[in-house]
Structures are given as structure tokens and as C-alpha cells.
Automatic annotation (TrEMBL):
It comes from Loa loa (Eye worm). PROSITE patterns: RAB (PS51419), RAS (PS51421), RHO (PS51420). This is Ras family protein. The keyword DNA repair does not apply. Belongs to the small GTPase superfamily. Rab family. InterPro entries: P-loop_NTPase, Small_GTP-bd, Small_GTPase. Keywords: Nucleotide-binding. It holds the Pfam family Ras.
Length: 191
């Protein structure tokens, strides 16, 4: 599939809300900013509550609008997560490949997503900070194996150099377009 990232689409074939979750400091905001073309910032303030960007793509002639939600990873914002999960059809669960605890928390995030979701949610597990390969604490095969156990897709990225970011967003969009064929009403956000 050869994707395009147009700046504007009217009446997309698919409009979907996706949410990024994970421990504070794993790079959720940096991944989203990198995807949005804003580059990499070595110092990013922790997200307070949530924020979102709209991303427009064209895949095989189908227009897609993704509302990409960035959520706070701090425990004090946990009670707000169900509100942000409302109508999300995909969750990208991010961990830091140099931080084993962030990887071990994936199960907690999966449970939070399942408990707070109002519609079926596709899961994507993303190990971030590939640029810190020398400090890796979680092997690629561990992330892939866990993702397979929970029925999620698996990717690794580097928000610092952009590696894998585009691939993740395209994989989410392609998956949601495929799902849409059988579940149109559950995948289209209210307008």
C-alpha cells in the first residue's frame, strides 16, 4: 500500500479515534510530535490530562482521518483515562525499551483500555527509544511475544530519529480500514 499524507480531506472514508497510553516518560508525546512533523525535542513536559492531533492519510485511494490522542502516563491522571477512551477504536500502548518496568506495566494498560473502552479496540504494542539500543533492557522478541499473547500488533520506534513512526501510524490506519469492512458502525466516530 502506498500511503499519502494530504493536508486536508473532506468526508474521509474512515474517521477514527486512536489513543496512545503508557507510563510517563516512554515517549508517547514525542512519537506523536514526530509523526506530526514537529521534530524531536529532548525535553518534553509531561502531558497533563490529554491532547490530540488530527492526521490525514490516503491509503489505496481511501481517505482516513485519525484523531490521535496523547494521554498522561502519571498515576494521578488514571481516573481520567476512561473519558479519553470513549469511542477510541485503537490503542497504542507504548513502553521504553530501556525501562523494563515500563514494559511490565503493559498488562496494566491493556486492562485499563479493556475496562474503559466503549467499543471494540484494536491493540498495538510499541517499544520506543530504538536509538538507545546499547541501553536496551527489553529485547525485541519479548515485546513481539507479549503482543502476540494479547492479540496486538507489535512495532519498535525511535521518536528521536523517526525510525518506525510512520510505519506504526500506517499500520493502525490499514488495520482500521480492514476492520471497517465488517464493522463500519463500530469504527466510525460520531461526527
Amino acid at each position: 500500500m502506498s500511503p499519502a499524507f494530504p493536508s486536508q480531506i473532506t468526508k474521509p472514508d474512515l474517521r477514527a479515534k486512536i489513543i496512545f497510553v503508557g507510563r510517563s516518560g516512554v515517549g508517547k508525546t514525542s512519537i506523536i510530535l514526530r509523526h506530526d512533523g514537529q521534530g524531536f525535542y529532548s525535553k518534553v513536559s509531561p502531558t497533563l490530562g490529554a491532547s490530540f492531533i488530527s492526521s490525514f492519510l490516503v491509503l489505496d485511494g481511501k481517505s482516513v482521518e485519525l484523531q490521535i490522542w496523547d494521554t498522561a502516563g502519571q498515576e494521578r491522571y488514571a481516573s481520567m483515562l476512561p473519558m479519553y477512551l470513549r469511542n477510541a477504536v485503537a490503542a497504542v500502548i507504548v513502553y521504553d525499551i530501556t525501562d523494563r518496568e515500563s514494559f511490565q506495566e503493559i498488562k496494566k494498560w491493556v486492562n485499563e483500555v479493556k475496562r474503559g473502552s466503549t467499543v471494540p479496540v484494536s491493540l498495538f504494542v510499541v517499544g520506543n527509544k530504538l536509538d538507545l539500543e546499547n541501553a536496551r533492557a527489553v529485547q525485541c522478541h519479548e515485546g513481539a511475544q507479549y503482543a502476540e499473547q494479547i492479540g496486538a500488533a507489535f512495532h519498535e520506534t525511535s521518536a528521536m530519529n523517526g525510525e518506525g513512526i510512520r510505519k506504526v501510524i500506517i499500520a493502525v490506519a490499514e488495520h482500521l480500514l480492514e476492520r471497517q469492512n465488517g464493522e463500519r458502525n463500530e469504527l466510525t466516530m460520531p461526527t
